[in-house]
Amino acid sequence: AQERYTSIRDLPAQARCGSVVSLQMNAGLMADLPSLDGSGADGVGLFRTELQFLVRNQMPKRSELSALYARVLDAAHGKRVVFRTLDIGSDKVLPYMKPNDEPNPALGWRAIRVGLDKPGVMRMQLQALIRAANGRSLTVMFPFVAQFEEFRAARAEVDKAMERERILGHPLPEKLEIGAMLETPSLAFAPQKFFEEVEFLSIGGNDLKQFFFAADRENERVRRRYDTLNVSFLTFLEGIVKRCEETDTPVSFCGEDAGRPVEALCFAAIGLRTLSMRPASIGPVKSLLRRCNLEDVRKVINEARDAGEMSVRSAVMEYVRSQHQ
Ligand code: PEP
Ligand code: MG
């Protein structure tokens, strides 16, 4: 099926209105990297670092991590790789960490909360990343930031790690970008200053949607109950895009929905111009984007909203079908 898309692999994801959407890929293993060329992705928009921690029975060593991250950067041939720091939770327990008995693990001690409370692992990981970059550009993203202070504290850890590496005589990255994932609704309402300070944001739609609708992403009974193209959720995403536009903060979307063509089309239409997805989705998403006019899609969305629709899906689907004729 992927062969259908090879003819557009090296073409931009340019819609008929002229707007270009940057399509990036999500990865988590060294084995994912060959897909960077195969899929035509513009870069790695999300590199999930937890897999290396989950597949072992002891904490990986800094030197092992650094070697792996260096190989990832080598394989990317200068394309940007967004390394997300360890995103473990009490549901994703490392076999060598004391388990936590929490009543609501998704709302519990996870991701950046662990990183800030027990900074040893995060410091080790930041050092490994700086060493892996070995003077090249480095992009780091913190998961599950719920308030500005958490981002500031995490950023301070990066500054400390840079200073330590400098003293040790290791080359520092020529360019360092520090961003955050927006996956809790609270962060969308952070003070203006947060949007000014953060260098980029990536919307983690899997978590953001589960918290927006209060519907557990792991619970089969409720997880598909609320449509991503629900007017409430799209309006919320639009608000985030608007705040980012006001502060010139680059924003992308990296949840699973970015890889669903109709969802991706709507995200692009409301102004999300960087989408990160599994490599196999890049072809289908690009193919649809190239057939559509984002300004028209935006009109369709607005009309459906004004007409009081619960979701814009059927209206957008109707538009998409009309583009085939
Ligand atoms: C997300 O929450 O949308 C996301 C990309 O992160 P993960 O799926 O790893 O939680
Ligand atoms: Mg998440």
From TrEMBL:
Belongs to the PEP-utilizing enzyme family. It is found in: Cytoplasm. It comes from the Bacteria. It comes from Sulfitobacter brevis. This is phosphoenolpyruvate--protein phosphotransferase.
